[in-house]
Amino acid sequence: MLRIHFTEADLARVRVAAEPDPMWEVLSTLHRLQSRGGRWQFAAWHRTVRADLNASGLAQQVRQGLFPLYALGPYLPDFLTPPESEGGITAALDAILGLPRRDVLAQLRLLDTVSPVPSWARRLDQGAERREFTELIRRYHDVAVAPFTEHMAGGIVAHRALLARALLTHGVQGLLTSLGPRFRWQPPVLEVDYRTDRDLHLRGRGIRIVPTYFSWGTPVALADPGLPPVLSCPLHHSTAPEEALPAENVPLSALLGNTRARVLRCVADGLTTGELAQAVGVSLSAASRHTSVLRDAGLTTSRHIGPTVLHTLTPLGAALLRKAPRMPGA
């Protein structure tokens, strides 16, 4: 279990990433390729990326050059997910290139205690080898992560809608209790189901929570407690497999009907059944029927919060909404 200790100052400095973090997504996608976790839910992505890696000639390089350092296990080198990743893939890779040699070697030695590090990786303290390694990360990102940015962003927008409602209704503590079933808020400690048993004291630094689209199962925190605190956590993915999106030029009103298209757009803000009925101008029973149809189609999700039911988008619904053109009257 991971126990994250908050002070009052930390509660005021909780941030939730608004966009996909490229390096956390790189890590998570590499884990999806190495395990069966989430294979059903990410089936379409898995098929596409396997084919594209083979077509681009990257498959073997990824297996030999990335899998060993992004190994499944209790430890991951922190330099693979630098804080600069918040600024994009280029800023993240520049940060890796600029890391002191001793820090890289120290983290690789730690990794070697739990997962064998290949001999070539021990030369990552040298400039040429590290540039080659970061270029491989960039090429992998271009194939396995970047093409799915819109879909990932849709999922994160939907997740943030749930967290925003919890924050507005119950404050920061409500947000922390809404992160998922692997989190338990026991003031002033956030308990997280984790691979190892450890304590993380924030000491007024706050924490950046990174909803990670391709993460599956256990949240991930940086190993070094001296680094700016970050916690990568999985989204609330549907248990159904992901499906292909409809064509971009299909208006939502033609696909769903005018009223249901309005329901989908309103649900993007995270609304209760009563709020949704008022926003769309339909009865409570009609609003409930529309959300039921959209939920069965995998476009929305419904969650009980006290006596009310909160409706928001699934990643598929959010991505569809982002792709579909807005038509007059829709």
Secondary-structure map:
Layout: E1 2-5, H1 8-11, E2 14-16, H2 22-34, H3 43-55, H4 59-65, H5 89-97, H6 101-112, H7 127-144, H8 149-177, E3 183-186, E4 189-192, E5 198-201, E6 207-212, E7 220-221, E8 230-234, H9 252-256, H10 258-267, E9 271-272, H11 273-280, H12 284-296, E10 300-305, E11 308-313, H13 315-323
Parallel strand pairs: 1-5, 2-6, 6-8
Antiparallel strand pairs: 1-4, 3-4, 7-8, 9-11, 10-11
Helix pairs in contact: 5-7, 8-13, 10-12, 11-12
What does this structure look like?
- With 330 residues, the protein is of the alpha/beta class.
- The chain folds into three domains: 2-17 and 150-234, no CATH class; 22-148, no CATH class; 252-323, Orthogonal Bundle (Arc Repressor Mutant, subunit A).
- Helix content is 45%, strand content 14%.
- It is built from 13 helices and eleven strands.
- The chain has helices spanning 8-11, 22-34, 43-55, 59-65, 89-97, 101-112, 127-144, 149-177, 252-256, 258-267, 273-280, 284-296, 315-323; strands spanning 2-5, 14-16, 183-186, 189-192, 198-201, 207-212, 220-221, 230-234, 271-272, 300-305, 308-313.
- The strands form three sheets. A four-stranded mixed sheet has the order 3-4-1-5, covered by helices on one side. The chain has a four-stranded mixed sheet with strand order 2-6-8-7. It has a three-stranded antiparallel sheet with strand order 9-11-10, with helices on both faces.
- Strand 3 (183-186) and strand 4 (189-192) form a beta hairpin.
- Helix 5 (89-97) packs antiparallel against helix 7, helix 8 crosses helix 13 and helix 10 crosses helix 12 (284-296).
- The longest helix is centred in the middle third of the chain and has 29 residues, at 149-177.
- The model is unreliable at 326-330 (pLDDT under 50).
